[in-house]
Amino acid sequence: MLPKVVCICPSRSRPRFLARARRCFESQTYPNKRLYVLNTAFPPFAGAPIGTLRNVMVQSADDADIIAHWDDDDWSCPWRLAEQVALLTSRRSLQAVGYQDMLFYDSRVGHSWIYRGSPGFIIGTSLMYWRSTWDTKRFQDTSEGEDGFFQDGLYKLTRSAVTQPPRMIAEIHGANTWGKIYGNSNEFQRTEQWDAPCARELGYGAVRLVDGLAARLST
């Protein structure tokens, strides 16, 4: 039987983002999956650090083999889970997998950026790991760097999310929990060629890039 993947999705009463996150989840080709959503707008979770929220959600997913991060303001391609599970299970010693670079789209101005992390670093929103890994190493109770602290010392593999079509797109909308702003970081690179594809995938255009790819493959 395929490992059971539980996707954890903290969401602060953002129905438009959550609806898109659900559609992305439902379109995943990997069959043995569940989506856990935690509304963080109300006590006791309102104002809680991101690391605390992740710990709460993973703790509740006690029937999971694998945990995947599934933030409500991200887009994931339909084969993300299948691709990452295949990578995670390719070596018995692997504890976590994810993407080292990712597309970011600022929906306020219609601009896209590529974020490139340091070698070996996994962007937190793309993390997938064995639940047994979390059993021995929890997230710190902070909203800054909790994913980095979790990754320290893990045996992990990274892949590129910036491919054709992209694996993941994170939306910048002005209310992000991630504190780093692209304008103040040399890890972000402006990429005009991705403006239209990112807009379409995030629902700001009429034609979706994945549909276009499927049409080309079927001809």
Stated plainly, the CATH topology is called Spore Coat Polysaccharide Biosynthesis Protein SpsA, Chain A
Secondary-structure element sequence? EHEHEEHEEEHHEEEHH
Query: What is the SS-derived class?
Result: alpha/beta
Question: CATH architecture, please?
Answer: Alpha-Beta Complex
Question: Number of folding domains?
Answer: 1
The helix content, as a percent range, equals 25-40%
CATH class label = Alpha Beta
Major sheet characteristics: 10 strands, mixed
Overall geometric form: globular
Q: Detail the poorly predicted runs.
A: 206-219
Q: Provide the residue-averaged pLDDT.
A: 87
How large a portion of the residues is in β-strands, by DSSP E? 15-25%
Distance between the termini: 34 Å
The number of distinct helices, counting runs of at least 4 residues, comes to 7
CATH homologous superfamily descriptor: Spore Coat Polysaccharide Biosynthesis Protein SpsA, Chain A
Write down how many β-strands occur, each being a DSSP E stretch of 2 or more residues.
10
Based on CA atoms alone, the radius of gyration comes out at 17 Å
Explain what you see.
This protein is an alpha/beta fold and 219 residues long. The chain has one domain (5-218): Spore Coat Polysaccharide Biosynthesis Protein SpsA, Chain A, CATH 3.90.550.10. Helix content is 28%, strand content 25%. β5 and β6 form a beta hairpin.
Features:
single chain, 219 residues, alpha/beta, Spore Coat Polysaccharide Biosynthesis Protein SpsA, Chain A, ten-stranded mixed sheet, globular
